TrEMBL record:
PROSITE patterns: CYTOCHROME_P450. It is found in: Membrane. It is a single-pass membrane protein. GO terms for molecular function: metal ion binding; monooxygenase activity; oxidoreductase activity, acting on paired donors, with incorporation or reduction of molecular oxygen. This is Cytochrome P450. Coiled coil: none annotated. One of its GO terms (cellular component) is membrane. The chain crosses the membrane at residues 12-31. It comes from the Eukaryota. Heme binds at C480. Keywords: Heme, Iron, Membrane, Metal-binding, Monooxygenase, Oxidoreductase, Transmembrane, Transmembrane helix. Its cofactor is heme. Belongs to the cytochrome P450 family. The lineage of its organism: Eukaryota, Viridiplantae, Streptophyta, Embryophyta, Tracheophyta.
Length: 537
């Protein structure tokens, strides 16, 4: 009996300690930590909407988000910006350009103040990284690739991939860009020939995605778009499923539950990884059969050889349960998604603006013809001539300002971080909202909401008061690695399309930009396309 009593006492003690530990954990996680972070920000003059326990400001966010965005008239072209995340618009009016809010246990800081943006961009520390909860949410789409990774893993991937996007490397992709674009040119010419009056009404979204997808497939993986088409399709489905604001801001992460939607995402993730893994295994088999020419390595080859160094002593970049095979898969998923979708959308939005402003379309087309003359259409290997296309460069910069695909940039304080004169505690998720930041009249002047490419005549530094607040490709050490590639590809594609066609907005086009992880036209980009020497009414 005495032994049984001792066992019961031990059992009760274990239960008591476990219960007490859980209660302490919940107290710290749900109450103490959020209050500590908010108190630290309040002491530095930062306010925001008052949170409610335990969900913070989620209820107000959901109420403000519930209004559906309707298509806008072209006379009110810019009115969509306050509807993407309407709570940002509402709270900015109440609390200024920097404010805090919470979604349950997650504490967020909205940043639009250009001085603070500057300090965020200047910070090189690994302790200012990506929000860690997003890595879990977006795992099916991006894994722990460079877009979402932190610390030594991110640093390793950046050092591995950055040299492949130097101008000296990506200029070798020009032939692929031209061949891919000319396929679209021939397709559109066929549509125009078959159309009445030599004007074709086209929805250009899928053609632009096929074009940029073909460039990434060939240049990075040595395959064609047709081979990678299934991968792009499945990534697009995952993108749509994961693009809810509730995922972005961490309202409630229920990705572990076996719901119908989650099961579909898991299925897509598995299928994408199987297809990419086949590409990897096929390449490894080829490498075993023959020596790879080191002067003609594509991105996949660089990744395989670079990751091999991890097996040779770089285990420090891994968290428990992560391995080299998964690292290669995640890098490949990031290249497929980030390298194709954002560039296609950049071209789509630029063509819309050129269609809306025919005087700029004519100016850019004249500049292209004056620069290249009779050498068109296959003549864009001369990088100096491409750099001298000033009007085209200004149009692209202004398009990326007003309709850059990247809507947000996010940072997380992985430990205490000092930015300028302010000190931010560990656990803050910082959000920059590009559409608002790029339309700030205090930075861009009284015509900040208007399409005026001439503002970039003297470059970004002369276009606004705070150049650091122009961030279509992100900012600081986390700036998009593919920036040079995206700009080069945009210039080549637009040169070929504008030298071949004239563009006008279709009367059937519905202007409704929406958040789908990137800025996308909800109803597609519908344009009237004719041969360049014809006028489109």
């Amino acid at each position: 009996m005495e032994a049984e009593k001792v066992v019961k006492e031990i059992w009760y003690s274990v239960v008591f300690l476990a219960t007490w530990s859980i209660m302490v954990f919940l107290y710290v996680k749900l109450w103490h930590e959020p209050r500590r972070i908010r108190s630290a920000l309040q002491k530095q003059g930062i306010s925001g909407p008052k949170p409610s326990f335990p969900f913070g400001n989620v209820s107000e966010m959901q109420q403000l988000q519930s209004k559906q965005l309707s298509p806008l008239s072209l006379d009110a072209l810019d009115d969509w910006t306050s509807s993407i995340f309407p709570y940002f618009h509402t709270w900015r009016q109440r609390y200024g350009s920097t404010f805090m809010y919470s979604t349950g246990t997650k504490q967020h800081l909205y940043v639009e103040n250009p001085e603070l943006v500057k300090w965020i961009g200047m910070n090189k520390s690994l302790e200012l990284g990506r929000p860690t909860y997003l890595t879990k949410v977006l795992k099916p789409l991006l894994g722990r690739g460079i877009v979402r990774s932190n610390g030594l893993n991110w640093a390793f991937q950046r050092n591995l991939l950055a040299p492949e996007f130097f101008q000296s490397k990506i200029k070798n992709w020009v032939d692929i860009m031209e061949e891919s674009t000319m396929e679209i040119v021939k397709k559109w010419e066929s549509h125009i020939t078959e159309s009445e009056g030599g004007v074709a009404e086209l929805v250009i979204d899928e053609d632009m995605k096929a074009l940029t997808g073909n460039v990434i497939s060939q240049a990075c993986f040595g395959s064609t778009y047709a081979q990678g088409n299934l991968i792009f399709e499945k990534l697009a489905k995952m993108q749509t499923a994961l693009s809810k604001p509730s995922n972005l801001f961490g309202f409630l992460n229920l990705r572990f539950l076996p719901t119908k939607e989650n099961k579909e995402i898991w299925k897509l993730e598995k299928e994408v990884e199987i297809m990419i893994l086949k590409l990897i295994k096929d390449r490894e088999a080829e490498n075993q059969k023959s020596n790879t020419d080191g002067n003609h390595k594509d991105m996949l080859q660089v990744v395989l050889e670079g990751v091999a160094s991890v097996d040779s002593g770089r285990k420090d970049i891994f968290e428990p349960g992560y391995n080299t095979e998964q690292l290669v898969l995640d890098i490949c998923k990031n290249m497929y998604f980030a390298g194709s979708e954002s560039t296609a959308l950049s071209i789509i939005w630029t063509l819309l603006l050129l269609a809306l402003y025919p005087e700029w379309q004519d100016r850019v087309r004249s500049e292209i013809k004056e620069t290249y003359g009779s050498m068109l259409p296959h003549s864009f290997h001369d990088m100096d001539k491409l750099r001298n296309l000033k009007a085209l460069t200004m149009v692209i910069q202004e398009s990326l300002r007003l309709y850059g695909p990247a809507i947000t940039a996010a940072r997380a304080t992985l430990s205490e971080v000092k930015l300028g004169e302010q000190v931010f505690p560990k656990g803050i998720n910082m959000w920059l909202f590009m559409p608002a930041m790029h339309r700030d009249s205090e930075n861009w002047g009284p015509y900040a909401r208007e399409f005026k490419p001439e503002r970039f005549a003297g470059g970004v530094s002369a276009a606004c008061k705070y150049p650091q607040a122009y961030a279509p490709f992100g900012l600081g050490s986390r700036i998009c690695l593919g920036q040079n590639l995206a700009l080069l590809e945009m210039k080549h594609v637009l040169c070929l399309l504008l030298s071949s066609f004239s563009f006008a907005v279709s009367p059937n086009y519905l202007h409704c930009p929406v958040y789908n992880m990137l800025l996308t036209p909800k109803y597609g980009m519908r344009l009237l396309v004719s041969k360049a020497h014809k006028n489109v009414a």
